[in-house]
Amino acid sequence: MAATDVDLAVERSADPAAVRLLLDTLISARPEIAERLAADESLRAALVAIGAVSRWLSRLCVSDPEAIEVLAHLDERIPVNGGSPEGLAVWKRREHLRIAALDLLGVDPLEAVGAALASMAGDVLGAAWRLAGPSAEGLAVIGMGKLGGTELNYASDVDILFVGEGDPRPLLDIARRCFRVDIDLRPEGRDGPLTRTLPSYQAYWERWAHTWEFQALLKARPVAGNPALGQAFAAAAAERIWSRPFGADDLRALRAMKAKAESEVARKGLTDREVKRGRGGIRDVEFAVQLLQLVHGRHDSALRSPSTLPALQELASAGYVGADDASALADAYRLLRTVEHRLQLVEDIQTHAVPERGAALDHLARAMGHRDTADRGAAEIFRAELIEHQRIVRSIHERLFFRPLLEAFTTSSTQLRPEAVAERLAAFGFDDADRTRIAVLELTKGITRSSRLMGQLLPLLLEWLSQSPDPDLGLLGLRTLASGQHRSAQLVSTFRESTEVARRLCLLLGTGRPFATTLEHQPELLTELGNDQTLRGRTREELAAAARRSVDWRPDSGERQTGLGRFKNTEQWRTAAGDVLDLDDLPTTSARLTTLAEVVLQAALDAVDVRLPLSLI
Predict the structure, then answer these.
(1) For position 2, what pLDDT does the model report?
(2) Band (374; pLDDT cuts 50, 70, 90)
């Protein structure tokens, strides 16, 4: 009967073959384990869970005689063995095993798993600090990234800074027997000194620090070393972050960094498979939360949590994020982080990419709790769930910052204070909250289908306008183009057919007034924003023919001048659009403008019909 219980547990696991191999290997070396597995349901469940998901922890169960005892007593945290570097490394592996078992059994939720891993890393760093002796006495260790946020991954780098005076290298050597330790978040990165005094950090923050470095300091937390020095660093960092205004230029700098990271993922073909930096991934959630913290945290200290989920909850409670959006983001974040954990548990490798197909994808799906059904396989079910969560995250991310603002403008039920509305608008480049409110109300006025659609689109439109050099100018242009019922309906219809046209229009309107002026007189150009080939321009021969047509049919010189001017403005608009939208590089844009000028001059010369030899230089 006992053997049946074991067999049943194996068959129900995510990887029965791997579990059988682990159990056979263990029992072959230690026959008494068979009896323990039959009698101890908790041990059996823990060993099966580890064997089904993690190859490297399965090897640990075989190589370390105490691993079975760890799994048999999961509720007992092992005392830290800080007597030697070797003993510390052994302790870390066993604690890692215990945390993973509690995770895979569903005993600990994601937040508890991340906190336990961060606590384990902090204990390793604390023991390494003590083992390093006098060289490290004057140092404090500051946790950054997921360590600082108490949301560590299984295979995370442990990001740290050193503050104080001393030599951190002995400490690093010991800690790196247990973790990949990264110290590149320090000022000046790899070119900077390994440690600085607190006054040196403060001077750096005051004079040279980049916006992303202040974003990173959101998660700074003393984790080991000199406690007084660590707390002094934390207080100084907090004072610097929250006394510093966060404006549109800071926002653009952070967005540019994120876009660069996303383009790197896209270049590798991992946009849809990378759960960390891909579209709708972990970074979309973290980035949104951190931006809102930087915008509103100066005046609302409750928003300053270094951990993503608690910070998101506080943002929702205070009305900075809609309750439904916050709930959807939290659910998706938990799923994405769990996927990340399952990927990393296999071989303790720092990976974030979901397998494309085959046995690896099927194993991940089963490790996530899915099983084949009569009509769908586990991998298909998992992929559908993942894609839906990624879609939700990206959708919310794209409208998160402006939907509460629109509610503040159009209803009386919002929780946002007027000051908070102004803060957020200013951070996104909108300098006049009253003017923005009036524009929003005009764009959404009435109860027509067009006004309702515009209301739905506005969070996205404001997001795209905020990415332009002058969001206020862009909003003014959008308001002008939408004036009048017919023009508003035409604009909304175009937007409904192509959100890419809407995005491009917002960027152009916020770049320069001529874009809106030309569209006012030639609204048909709006549809061209979706055609890359048209925006990249025509050949010289095509331009010359079009220039001749613009003057040939007109009867007098005044009308011909008007026609040629209209032709020139239209082509210049297309060229400028291609330039701003990065469809053309600078040399190509310059060449297009030169060709246009030459074609216009030739058309004018032909129209005048000069009877003397003439050359234009």
Answers:
(1) 46
(2) very high
Please tell me the predicted confidence (pLDDT) of residue 406: 83
Dihedral sign of CA atoms 115, 116, 120, 121 in order: negative
pLDDT of residue 450: 66
- In the chain, how long is the greatest CA-to-CA distance? 112
Looking at residue 339, its amino acid is V
Question: Which helix (H) or strand (E) is 545 found in, with range?
Answer: helix 540-552
Q: Tokens in use for 540?
A: 């010289």
- The number of residues in the chain equals 617
For residue 164, report the phi and psi dihedrals to the nearest 5 degrees.
Answer: 120, -155
- 3-class DSSP assignment, residue 164: strand
Beta bridge partners of 196: 163
- pLDDT for residue 3 is more than 60: no
How many other β-carbons are positioned within 10 Å of the β-carbon of residue 372?
Answer: 14
Q: Using the structure block, give the residue that is written with the tokens 């210049």.
A: 572
3-state SS assignment for residue 285: helix
**Distance from C-alpha of 477 to C-alpha of 471, rounded to nearest angstrom:** 10
Cα separation, 284 vs 271, whole angstroms:
12
* pLDDT score recorded for residue 302: 95
Check: CB of residue 443 under 8 Å from CB of residue 474: no
d(CA 84, CA 90): 10
| Cβ atoms 440, 404 nearer than 8 A | no
Taking each continuous run of H as one helix and of E as one strand, the counts in the chain are: 31, 5
Cα separation, 287 vs 291, in Å, equals: 6
Q: 159: which 2 tokens?
A: 């990001």
What percent of the chain is predicted at pLDDT more than 90? 76
63: burial class by Cβ within 10 Å (0-12, 13-18, 19+)? exposed
What tokens appear for 427 in the block?
């951070």
What's the CA gap between 188 and 385, in Å, rounded? 41
Residue 364: per-residue pLDDT: 97
Nearest-5° angle of CA 351, CA 93, CA 54? 45
β pairing state of 221-225 and 195-196: unpaired
Q: DSSP 3-state assignment of 509?
A: helix
Judge whether residue 574 has pLDDT over 90.
yes
Judging by beta carbons within 10 Å of its beta carbon (0-12, 13-18, 19+), is residue 390 exposed, middle or buried? Answer: buried
Query: Does the structure show a pLDDT above 70 at 448?
Result: no
Q: Of 220, 155, 157, nearest to 187 (Cα)?
A: 220
Query: Picking from 88-97, 191-200, 519-528, which range would have the lowest pLDDT averaged per residue?
Result: 519-528
Category of 145 on φ-ψ map: left (φ > 0), alpha (ψ -120 to 50) or beta: left
pLDDT at 1: 38
> What's the helix, strand, coil split of the chain in %, to 5?
70, 5, 30
pLDDT of residue 190: 92
CB atoms closer than 10 angstroms to residue 238: 16
Q: What is the mean pLDDT of residues 37-62?
A: 96
Backbone angles phi, psi at 29, to 5 degrees: -80, -30
Distance CA 343, CA 543 (A): 56
- Specify the DSSP element, H or E, that contains 54: none
- CA 26 to chain centroid: 43
At 431 the three-state DSSP class reads coil
